[in-house]
Amino acid sequence: MSALYHNLNKTFLNTSMNNNDMDHNTPHYRDLATIARLAEGYQQVYGRLIHYSQQQVVYRVTTEDACFALAQVQNGEVEIEALEMWANLLEIRGDIDHSQVEGLLYALANPEQMGTMSHEKVTQLLNLYK
Fold first, then answer.
1. Residue 21 to residue 58: CA distance in whole angstroms
2. Residue 100 has pLDDT above 90, yes or no
3. In the prediction, which pLDDT does 6 show?
4. Alpha-carbon distance 104 to 1, whole Å?
């Protein structure tokens, strides 16, 4: 695994920069954090999302989260095709504040704007956001 992945993984474990006022101990928060980072087990979390209220923000997606997710794709842990669905999900959830990475998510959720996603584009996005 790359040094970038290890640095982002440390951030994954230690980050709360923009989530300081959130309750990190709830399953809702932890599941959204897993999705936001495309972390290990993210696919199993999708089925649980239906049980969570979207009435208030529970998680704020940070640039660190987005970089971690992109690194997961770059390292082959997540299929590149998953990025469009991931971006759409983060955009539509009422319990997720995605304002810090809104432009990135828009580009990923609308491939007609950015063209077909490739590993080269993932690398460019990582360099832009880190």
1. 9
2. yes
3. 47
4. 24
